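FW: tagging you since you asked about this chain on Friday. Here's the raw sequence from the shared folder, copied in full. Didn't touch anything.
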Amino acid sequence: MNLRRRQLFAKSGFGLLGAGFMSRVDRVAAMQPSPTSLTARVKKEASGNSAKMLLRLTPGEEGPPEPAKFDRLPLEWNKQTVRRFKQKLAERGVEAFLVRDPLNIIYLTGYWHTKTERPQATFMNRDDMDPWFFYPALDRDLVRGWWFGNGLMYFDFLHAEGAFPNEGKVVQGKTVDLFKLMLEGIKKRGIQGKKIGLDGELYPSESAKATEVLPGMEWVNVGDLLLDMRIVKTPEELALWRRAYTYFDRAHAFARDYILTHGTDITDYEVKMATELWINDQLYSELNLANGAPDHGVKSGVELGVRAGPVTAYPHPNQPYYNRIGRNMALQISGAAQIGGCGHENYRMFIIADAAGQFDPHMRKLWEVSQRCCDMQVELQVEGATCSSLAYKIHQYQVEQGVQKYIYHRPAHGAGMEGHQAPYLALGDYTVLQRNMCFSEEPGLFDPEHGCGFNWSDTVVTGVKSGYRMSRVPYSKEWCWIKL
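HL: got it, structure written out here
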């Protein structure tokens, strides 16, 4: 691990983690194979077993693509995506678009920014080569850094007329209606046609202002077009998605080794902190961060969530994950990883044996049924099936196994930049699956009475003959049933 970071953590005290935390991290870090060896074979001198157990593709197996070499989707990808969007708009007779949802702005233009109360928007005509932006002063450098044609800047929310302290103009002017200001900006910019595609609908108050500023203009909700595009992933997105998972796979191996090495002397919180510290040090050292320059390393990182014991028994607990790891309990290693905004969840469920080395029969039953449901989803997730049909077969299997009282939610949700994305593997969702749609994998079973629960996740990509998983972390008893 980087010496500077080790010294920083040593100075901070890290009271919750106790004395010797960094030495425990270093001990497990030394067990891990080098990053370069993971692309070929695991180093023989690596003493940890978990990385050696990560799955390798077998000949003919439909599986994830090779990891991307790039750190984010390239500018040409954004330009091609906008071209595809304009083609779809043309089919509806729309020659201009205005998008306001940050996820859609990022998806189309590659302008990564933070959502706040400050409105931002992107506008383009059919014939425009570059996007026009409406943006606040605090993002004036970021917006120009990737793909910028022109735009209109206001100072901040709430904006006073004529007030730009950044230009030496400190004025207590009239509060500006930012929506009208944006409309006046695109009017001045020039609009092709008599229709503007919008990623949503106007509120009644906005509609009145739109009529005032742009009379005769028709606003067409084209949010469904953008969502449909975002749901079906491109090869470039899937390759970057897989790259994110190479780090999450390594994180799982580290966390498993950490638990096996330190056993009941540690908390679930410590496993989380140790693993996040180690894997993000690996990730950020391998990304091209250009010494902190903007537009490098955007939306990249690995977040862990480790929970042991009764907290596993709740789908969305409201209590902290801070419990000493013990025998005869369920344990979950979870979280999400992204590089350039591509990536998703990766959960595995463990059973820890009791003092006699035995595994609780009730926990075994819930683990085995939920694990089988994960495999069912992969087998069933093929183009042409419906979301509802997958949910029906998985829930039906759970009921046949007699575990219906432990079912709390649908088997999966769509996966995208925002985490949860339409469509959903739910009984009421009749969306027809298309190739390269991505879903989580969560046929969870929860038993608060006995203080245990089992909820998995991964990214399952829709295929032709079956789906495939992004992660190469095993779902086997050998990996998940452990003795301390």
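FW: The radius of gyration is 25 Å.
HL: agreed, and Residues 235-262 form the longest helix (28 residues).
FW: great, closing this out.
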